[in-house]
Amino acid sequence: PAEDIQRARELVAGAGRLVAMTGAGVSTDSGIPDFRGPNGVWTRNPGAEKLSNIRDYVASKDVREQSWQARVGHPGWHAKPNRAHEALVELERDGRLSAIITQNIDGLHQKAGSDPERVIELHGTMFETVCLSCAERRDMREALDRVRAGESDPPCLACGGILKSATISFGQALDTEVLDRAKTEAMSCDVLLAAGTSLTVHPAAGLVGLAASAGASVIVCNASETPYDSAASAVLRGPLGDVLPALTRS
Ligand code: NAD
């Protein structure tokens, strides 16, 4: 509704400390499908959910081989940031955005020009690998080269353990330092702008409730309903490529 846009613009314009919380929906215009939207990976192929579960990844070589094939062909390697990412860069240049808490692993906020120090990657990054045994991290390009050269499930070069992209799968705990930073930001902002996330994955989604109970106003920008719509001061359903630039333009 028009009054929600107006209210949201006022909140953004008046914010002393604004935090954005983003999800897969900010990257759909960059050609990376979300999970639960109308063209989402899981909406189209419910079986794909298995690839995101740590238990199956550890237990099954077959799942790991499929994951590596999917990783090689991931649209994120060549994706470019879109107007939604750019709008958040503008907000930061205005000096009001203190952090972007993102559930995305695609690095597009940083590519758009957001200060990497302010981007909190709750679910990790697809640009690195991590060994599930010795925790060594390496550049993802190395593993992808090995997969392309014929290793269908490349083991860790340091210890022979199971190698995985440095992203959080279901059943895997978030990095506590990263989560603590996100909590601190959520509790100290006066406006929390949630964009392109269904707010159904925890603990990420819980940060919105945390911000609200600490007194922040919440703005939800998402095409479909979220569990936090009723707690929000404004709810905007339009496409993010229009909504975010409209919100942030003063
Ligand atoms: P989700 O798929 O659950 O929700 C995305 C939401 O964005 C949907 O509700 C959809 O309606 C909305 N949306 C999509 N395009 C939009 C647009 N252009 N304008 C407005 N709304 C739009 O995603 P989530 O909440 O981020 O949770 C999914 C999990 O999947 C996260 O944990 C994340 O780590 C991971 N993931 C990341 C990426 C990425 O890095 N780009 C992509 C897919 C999934």
TrEMBL record:
Q: Which organism is it from?
A: Prauserella muralis
Residue ranges annotated for the Deacetylase sirtuin-type domain, each copy included:
1-250
Keywords associated with the record:
NAD, Transferase
Q: What class of enzyme is it?
A: transferase
The GO molecular function terms of this record are: histone deacetylase activity, NAD-dependent; NAD+ binding
Q: What is this protein called?
A: protein acetyllysine N-acetyltransferase
- Give the organism's phylogenetic lineage: Bacteria, Bacillati, Actinomycetota, Actinomycetes, Pseudonocardiales
CDD domains noted in UniProt: SIR2-fam (cd01407)
Is Hydrolase among this UniProt entry's keywords?
no
> InterPro entries from the xrefs?
DHS-like_NAD/FAD-binding_dom (IPR029035), NAD-dep_sirtuin_deacylases (IPR050134), Sirtuin (IPR003000), Sirtuin_cat_small_dom_sf (IPR026591), Ssirtuin_cat_dom (IPR026590)
